[in-house]
Amino acid sequence: MIVYRLTQYTARLLARALLRPLEVEGLEHVPRSGPFLLVANHESVLDPVLIQAVCPPVVHTMTRSAQFTPPGMGWYMPRLAAFPVRRYQVDAQAVRIALRRLAADRPVGVYLEGERSWDGRLQPPRLGTLRLILRAGVPVVPVGIHGAYEVWPRWAGRPKRGPVRIRFGAPIHFPGPIRNRAERDRHVPDVAARMSAELLRLSDGEPGARPQGVVDNDL
């Protein structure tokens, strides 16, 4: 994991230069060993860079498959412990990879919304992410990011300076591992409500802005 650690160190230096300031809270909640799911909101392209820059364990992040296609990225991304997922469709292979890495005691990172927010607000959770939480049956560490949208929204060509805060919450334990899909789906509404509420709290979202519903067909 030499490439991962070198990238992590470089990302910390760049974050200090760009973000004024970068605040990190709750790292004591992150397990130093064993499997867990790191589940964050997604404001900006900066999110995975910042999370992996400050999170002590190596996090194996589910990443959209298009990021593996530019020249050199097919070599580089796996060395960042990233693995591809096809968005907007069922991707059983990505789920199998996530479960295998958790079974090998490795942390796996996913985004509750499945893609970057268009307006800085928390979007409805993806059904595939909720099912993965219940299928895995490991602790879920919620991560709230606040300010990254203002620094680099998805429609902007480049970032600007600004403050960003990352808050890690206490691990949440949901029922699982649940292998039966019908049984998993019975627990989906509760997982969606609890995860949305916690990410809103950690990311300083408006209390009344909890997203409604669940977006289907993403994993």
Task: Give a quick set of tags describing it.
219 residues; alpha/beta; 7-stranded mixed sheet; Glycerol-3-phosphate (1)-acyltransferase; 7 helices
Give the overall silhouette: globular
Looking at how many chains there are and whether they match, the oligomeric state comes to single chain
CATH architecture: 3-Layer(aba) Sandwich
Order of secondary-structure elements:
HEEHEHEHEHEHEH
- By CATH, the topology is Glycerol-3-phosphate (1)-acyltransferase
Radius of gyration: 16 Å
Determine and state the CATH class: Alpha Beta
Query: In whole angstroms, how far apart are the ends?
Result: 27 Å
Helix content: 25-40%
Percent of residues in beta strands: 15-25%
Largest sheet: 7 strands, mixed
Overall mean pLDDT score?
A: 92
| Number of E strands | 7
Number of helical regions: 7
In short:
The protein is an alpha/beta fold and 219 residues long. 37% of the residues lie in helices and 17% in strands.
Structure description:
The protein has 7 helices and 7 strands; from the N terminus they run αββαβαβαβαβαβα. The protein has 219 residues and is an alpha/beta fold. It has one domain: 3-Layer(aba) Sandwich (Glycerol-3-phosphate (1)-acyltransferase). It has a 7-stranded mixed beta sheet with strand order 1-7-6-2-5-3-4, sandwiched between helices. β3, α3 (73-79) and β4 form a beta-alpha-beta unit. The longest helix is centred in the C-terminal third of the chain and has 22 residues, at 181-202. The chain starts with a helix and ends in a 17-residue tail after the last helix. The mean pLDDT is 92.
